[in-house]
């Protein structure tokens, strides 16, 4: 009796494994195809990211060349964050007062002085004018701005 029971148990296990294999074969095929698809998408993404980086470099380079051509006739204005802050202090002005003179926000002046950002071309022209101001002229401009 024990022999028949062992044979039946072994046969049931064999048939169960065979049935499980047939049931999961489709799932295995799907998983394999999805993995291949994920790998292909990852490769496509990497290629696209490389292309975007290349285009950004090209745009930056082309933009610099175009800016250089446009600004060839305009005088170059240098900007130094410590120099800007030093001039503001020599005039005895606060960052908000300098911002009022330049027509920008006080936060912009703070970021320029700390070196976190650089002024734009339009603002550089205003800064160049600001550099030429003395205490009296700066105070006169502030008084005019406060009256308006």
Structure report:
This protein is an all-alpha fold. The chain has 2 domains: 1-74; 81-147, 434 Repressor (Amino-terminal Domain) (Orthogonal Bundle). The protein has helices spanning 2-70, 81-91, 95-102, 106-114, 121-131, 135-147. Helix 3 packs across helix 4 (106-114). It is rod-shaped.
Q: Can you give keywords for this protein?
A:
mainly alpha, rod-shaped, 0% strand, 2 domains
**How many runs of DSSP E, i.e. beta strands?**
0
Report how far the terminal alpha carbons are from each other.
Answer: 111 Å
Radius of gyration over C-alpha positions, nearest whole angstrom: 36 Å
Discrete helix count: 6
Structural class: mainly alpha
Tally the structural domains.
2
Helical content class: over 70%
- Contiguous runs where pLDDT drops below 50 for at least 5 residues: none
Run of helices and strands: HHHHHH
Q: Brief overview, please?
A:
With 148 residues, the chain is mainly alpha-helical. The protein has helices at 2-70, 81-91, 95-102, 106-114, 121-131, 135-147. It folds into 2 domains: 1-74; 81-147, 434 Repressor (Amino-terminal Domain) (Orthogonal Bundle), CATH 1.10.260.40.
List the helices and strands and how they pair.
Elements: H1 2-70, H2 81-91, H3 95-102, H4 106-114, H5 121-131, H6 135-147
